[in-house]
């Protein structure tokens, strides 16, 4: 396995958990990488489970899936990156959703590429390398 850390957006974790064509499209970008997710992604995945009233089996699969990733916790440098990204996007007339800003801040803080299927959510963020796949 490569030591190249790659951070996955919540949608990619969801695709990998479900399988199918979208998951397959991202395999070349995640295979052999040290895969990390933000603490925000963990919360978003649990929110999805609660919001959609997942049963016990699907929740167990979620727990197993989440253990496959390094979870990036909050730290002060991530918080500084978050503040900078939120202000930068607002100044540019393109506000960013807070959870997206936290995920981008984790990637920026760790100088790691972010794999997402929602690249537009992260456009215009300096020092963020976004990896996405056009499907269809």
Give the key terms.
6 helices; 136 residues; single chain; alpha/beta
At a glance:
The chain is of the alpha/beta class and 136 residues long. The chain has helices spanning 10-18, 21-30, 39-51, 56-66, 76-91, 98-109, and strands at 5-8, 34-38, 70-72, 114-115, 130-131.
Describe the structure.
- The protein is an alpha/beta fold.
- It has a single domain, classed as 5'-nuclease (Rossmann fold).
- It is 52% helix and 12% strand.
- The chain has six helices and five strands, in the order E-H-H-E-H-H-E-H-H-E-E.
- It has helices at residues 10-18, 21-30, 39-51, 56-66, 76-91, 98-109; strands at residues 5-8, 34-38, 70-72, 114-115, 130-131.
- The chain has a five-stranded parallel β-sheet with strand order 3-2-1-4-5.
- The longest helix is centred in the middle third of the chain and has 16 residues, at 76-91.
Could you state the CATH homologous superfamily? 5'-nuclease
Count of helical stretches: 6
Q: Which fold name is given in CATH as the topology?
A: Rossmann fold
Helix-strand pattern: EHHEHHEHHEE
Assign an overall shape. globular
Report on the biggest sheet.
5 strands, parallel
Level of helix content?
40-55%
Provide the domain count.
Answer: 1
* CATH architectural category: 3-Layer(aba) Sandwich
Average pLDDT, rounded to a whole number, is: 93
